[in-house]
Amino acid sequence: MAHHLTGIDHTLLAAADLEAARETYRRLGFTLTPRGRHVGWATGNYCIMFPQNYVELLGIAEPGGYTAGLEEMLAARGEGVHKIILGTGDAMAARASLAAAGFDPSEPQSLSRALELPEGEVMPSFTLVHLPAAATPGLSMFLVQHLTPDLLRRPDWLVHPNGAETLAGVVVVVDEPVALEGPYERLLGAGNAVRTDRMVAARVGRESILFVTQDDLSTLFPDLDHAERATPYVAGMRFRVHNPDAAAVWLKTAGVDHVRSLDGTVLVPAEAAHGCFLEFSSRQ
């Protein structure tokens, strides 16, 4: 991809109650890391790790402190996936490339979080580069370079009882998807944003971002009820599983509300997953 980008590094799901979100996603069949706390901030997280990407459940761990806009985000838009974070192996080179292309990226920012392991805290560290809203219409995005990748993944964190193997992509509802083809091809590189009828699929490394209208969302996922929400918003996360039947068995045993599509895909409604629907499929 262009600008030293490697793909979707992770999604950020804002949760009103971090511990409740952790319990929800445990019941959904995901293995979660121990809790992390952002150094100098009031936010904490639990992560659902895959070999190449992950989902971050973000919430307020210490009320009254700095939350980097999380409180305002929850008040304005409620729970759900509010940011998509792009990966890079070289934040400085990515910033230079983006700046040369006229994207006006921020200066690199350092961030660490204390990860509470049984044997004691470790301190994963990152470099962030933020992008202006005009560079990523329909989504809030920034870049991350992991400086301590060996601290982020342990073999037992990568095995999920529901069979999820990776985060395959997200579905985003916008008013005019076709207007996003040009901006995302410019950001991601030629051929990485493809228009199909009224939808635009942006290929981000191994993952995809599907931009659709509210009407198309109902057409694509007719087995779910889709509440009207202010656009743009991330409607769902898509996970690849080896066996959707096994995922359905887990969810049924755990008492989680879900439906099956005609092609066997398993869907969990947004109200059962803190603001965005989940899709489990072997066909992504």
Mean pLDDT: 95
Low-confidence sequence ranges: none
Radius of gyration using CA atoms only: 18 Å
The helix-strand sequence is EHEEEHEHEEEEEHEEEHEHEEE
Beta-strand residue percentage: 35-45%
- Strand-pairing-aware structural class: alpha+beta
What is the top-level CATH class of the largest domain?
Alpha Beta
Globular, elongated, flat, extended or rod-shaped: what is the shape?
globular
* C-alpha end-to-end distance: 20 Å
Largest sheet: 8 strands, mixed, barrel
* CATH homologous superfamily (4th level) name of the largest domain: 2,3-Dihydroxybiphenyl 1,2-Dioxygenase, domain 1
Second rung of CATH, namely the architecture of the largest domain: Roll
Number of helices: 6
How many separate domains make up the residues?
A: 2
Query: Main sheet: which strands, in order across?
Result: 1-4-3-2-6-8-9-5
Count of individual beta strands: 17
Q: Could you please describe the fold and organization of this structure?
A:
- There is one protein chain.
- This protein is of the alpha+beta class.
- The chain folds into 2 domains: 156 residues, 2,3-Dihydroxybiphenyl 1,2-Dioxygenase, domain 1; 123 residues, 2,3-Dihydroxybiphenyl 1,2-Dioxygenase, domain 1.
- It has 6 helices and 17 strands.
- It has an 8-stranded mixed β-barrel with strand order 1-4-3-2-6-8-9-5. It has an 8-stranded mixed sheet with strand order 11-12-13-10-14-17-16-15.
- The protein is globular, with a radius of gyration of 18 Å.
- It starts with a strand and ends with a strand.
